[in-house]
């Protein structure tokens, strides 16, 4: 193996709550199911500019890592928003508006096309949606609000970069910056929504609020649906980065729902500072991470697991892994340069986390064995964002993302 990748600290555990032989059960189907996916497909594929994101084959890197295949789902290409997030946030906004129209008109099955074409503008324009965000989720909710014509207020915490703030404001949302962490911003969004009569579109759930977070996750599942169309052989491993766990749960659930016990080995990936899934799976119960949880992988800087995602990932994830911030930076550079003939790929801070974990594990003999990574392995990683923050990308990679892509 000639890959130039430094040895960096990591942690890896088997999930003690994993139930690898279990069929996709009622508790999981109550969160994500075939009907929900069909609705996500009906709505999202009708949005202007929809196209499945590319699945990039990294054959050179796969060879270097001693695995059969490595497929990178390039979510940087999603709707010009550079992350997978619009699948969830904007879809949940549309579902919220469908419910508002149904309530106002008494129509049982509101056609999403009539939300998109402005038929119900009088009702839709009176709705205000809100969300807390580290950047990508808020951008997605703001983008959906603009597309459908409702009002949008987004809360961000102090660590969110000005570039990410501006990207949300440019979509016409009102952005309010607060002191404290992402989790503080989440609490504030709920409080304000209660006071003002707005609808919160969270990308995470506690046990009380489930409708919008379930919609968010169901929208993310379209990403996995696309994967099924794109892959010609079932993967053996999924390395899925987790913040609150919504994306990982949606992808893992889709593979589990369709393949039961034959599903791929699913490894959750987090930064050390915000390893709430690692800690929770280890403890066997949801466990918050407090203190300074900010990581270079900003989208993963979450201290609390989503309760809905827990229903899926507690039994559904096989292992959890902590990767170093430095591994994400190294991976961004490696991808941008292309390994052994691979095409250059633009990956953002949180976007490369799953791949960073794969490289870390595949180059460590103990981790390799524990995760059964070998020359037969077909690995899928989700490149969940591109260069959302251009300044960060340029700083880490040394070139602009356009230059890399060209
Ligand atoms: C780029 C990116 N990747 C992954 C995640 C993690 O998603 P989740 O919070 O649903 O686990 C996020 C969350 O914001 C993100 O922005």
How would you characterize the overall build of this protein?
The chain is α/β, with parallel strands linked by helices and about 400 residues long. It has helices spanning about 25-30, 35-45, 60-65, 85-105, 110-115, 120-125, 135-150, 160-170, 180-195, 210-230, 245-260, 275-285, 305-315, 325-335, 355-360, 365-370, 390-395, 400-405, and strands at about 10-15, 55, 70-75, 130-135, 150-155, 175-180, 200, 235-240, 265-270, 320-325, 380-385. It has 2 domains: about 10-85 and about 215-405, Rossmann fold (3-Layer(aba) Sandwich); about 90-200, Rossmann fold (3-Layer(aba) Sandwich), CATH 3.40.50.1100. Pyridoxal-5'-phosphate (PLP) binds near residues 245, 246 and 300.
Topology diagram in text:
Blueprint: E1 10-14, H1 26-29, H2 34-44, E2 55-57, H3 59-65, E3 69-74, H4 86-105, H5 112-116, H6 121-124, E4 128-133, H7 136-148, E5 151-157, H8 162-169, E6 174-178, H9 182-196, E7 199-200, H10 211-230, E8 237-241, H11 246-259, E9 265-271, H12 276-283, H13 307-316, E10 319-323, H14 325-337, H15 353-362, H16 365-370, E11 378-383, H17 390-397, H18 401-405
Parallel strand pairs: 3-11, 4-5, 4-7, 5-6, 8-9, 8-11, 9-10
Antiparallel strand pairs: 1-10, 2-3
Bound molecules: pyridoxal-5'-phosphate (PLP).
Residues 83, 85, 134, 136-137, 203, 241-248, 299-300, 302, 350-351, 384-385 line the site of pyridoxal-5'-phosphate.
């Amino acid at each position: 193996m000639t890959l130039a990748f430094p040895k960096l600290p990591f942690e890896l555990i088997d999930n003690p709550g994993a139930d690898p032989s279990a069929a996709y059960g009622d508790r999981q189907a109550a969160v994500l199911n075939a009907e929900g996916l069909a609705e996500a497909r009906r709505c999202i594929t009708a949005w202007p500019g929809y196209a499945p994101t590319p699945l990039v084959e990294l054959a050179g890197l796969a060879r270097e890592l001693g695995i059969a295949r490595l497929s990178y789902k390039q979510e940087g290409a999603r709707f010009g928003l550079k992350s997978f997030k619009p699948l969830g946030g904007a879809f949940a906004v549309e579902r919220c508006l469908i419910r508002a129209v149904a309530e106002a008109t008494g129509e049982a099955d509101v056609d999403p096309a009539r939300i998109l074409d402005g038929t119900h503008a009088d009702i839709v324009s009176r709705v205000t949606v809100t969300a807390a965000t580290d950047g990508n989720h808020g951008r997605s909710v703001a983008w959906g609000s603009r597309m459908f014509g409702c009002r949008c207020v987004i809360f961000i915490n102090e660590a969110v970069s000005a570039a990410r703030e501006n990207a949300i404001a440019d979509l016409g949302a009102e952005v309010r910056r607060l002191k404290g962490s992402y989790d503080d911003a989440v609490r504030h969004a709920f409080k304000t929504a209660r006071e003002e009569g707005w609808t919160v579109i969270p990308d995470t759930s506690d046990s009380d609020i489930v409708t919008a977070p379930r919609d968010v996750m169901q929208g993310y599942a379209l990403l996995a649906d696309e994967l099924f169309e794109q892959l010609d052989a079932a993967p053996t491993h999924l390395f899925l980065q987790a913040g609150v766990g919504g994306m990982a749960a949606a992808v893992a659930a889709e593979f589990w729902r369709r393949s039961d016990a034959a599903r791929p080995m699913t490894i959750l990936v987090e930064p050390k500072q915000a390893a709430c899934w690692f800690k929770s799976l280890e403890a066997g119960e949801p466990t918050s991470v407090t203190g300074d949880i900010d990581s270079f992988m900003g989208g993963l800087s979450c201290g609390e697991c989503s309760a809905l995602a827990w229903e899926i990932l507690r039994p559904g994830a096989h292992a959890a892994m902590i990767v170093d911030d430095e591994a994400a930076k190294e991976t961004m550079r490696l991808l941008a340069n292309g390994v052994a003939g691979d095409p250059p790929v633009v990956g953002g801070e949180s976007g490369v986390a799953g791949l960073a974990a794969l490289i870390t594990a595949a180059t460590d003999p103990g981790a390799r064995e524990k995760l059964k990574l070998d020359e037969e392995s077909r690995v899928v990683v989700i490149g969940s964002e591109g260069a959302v923050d251009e300044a960060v990308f340029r700083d880490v990679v040394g070139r602009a993302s356009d230059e890399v892509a060209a």
